[in-house]
Specification:
This protein is mostly helical and 197 residues long. It has 8 helices and no strands. Helix 7 runs antiparallel to helix 8. It starts with a helix and ends with a helix.
Length: 197
């Protein structure tokens, strides 16, 4: 595939984006290809080095802000006609609550995930606090016998040791929740706003 064929194919697959964004992506990949060609690589080899065009398009669409995709989906190609305006106004009692409900559900999901992450770290802090209190209480138990005191201090040290393990577990769980949420967001974005070519 030549450089011109690649750029035309790229534009065709990105046709759902605004024209200025398509031109920006074409200019970026044209510059990449020009740099490789200047280094003595043939056009066909340079295009091959970029990889599969489907993967390139997926990466571009993954990185495009959702606002850009929504604007390109909502804005009619030939501008707003009187009929389109009338349908938008008459359909407002239906689509406004749906949009608000979608925003509220997305916000609730984000708040729930944040609450889970915060609660993980609160539990870790509670283990640490309980460990410290048990150790200090253990020193007071020497009046009842060394066995009680040593057991309490040992229990407190075990709790503090669990804190270090729990911090690692909470950190990995928080990172996993973050990556899972990002994957869910990108999947929803791809399914709702990215047109399959």
């Amino acid at each position: 595939m030549t450089k011109d064929m690649f750029l035309r194919e790229l534009a065709a697959r990105l046709r759902q984006l605004p024209p200025d964004e398509i031109k920006r992506q074409q200019a970026y990949y044209a510059e990449l290809l020009d740099d490789m060609i200047e280094d003595g690589i043939s056009e066909e080899s340079a295009v091959e080095r970029l990889g599969d065009i489907s993967d390139i398009v997926d990466e571009i669409l993954k990185d495009i802000p959702i606002q850009t995709l929504v604007k390109s989906r909502v804005k009619p190609k030939n501008g707003w006609t009187a009929a389109a305006i009338a349908v938008a106004i008459l359909g407002a009692p239906l689509w406004i609550p749906l949009v608000l409900a979608t925003i509220i559900v997305a916000g609730a999901i984000c708040l729930s995930i944040c609450a889970v992450i915060i609660s993980l770290f609160v539990v870790v802090l509670a283990f640490g606090f309980a460990g410290l209190l048990t150790i200090f209480h253990g020193f007071g138990l020497f009046t009842f016998g060394a066995g009680y005191a040593i057991f309490a201090i040992g229990t407190g040290l075990v709790l503090l040791g669990l804190v270090f393990l729990a911090v690692l577990a909470a950190e990995y769980a928080a990172i996993g929740l973050f990556h899972g949420t990002r994957w869910l967001f990108r999947t929803v974005k791809r399914k709702l706003f990215v047109k399959e070519v």
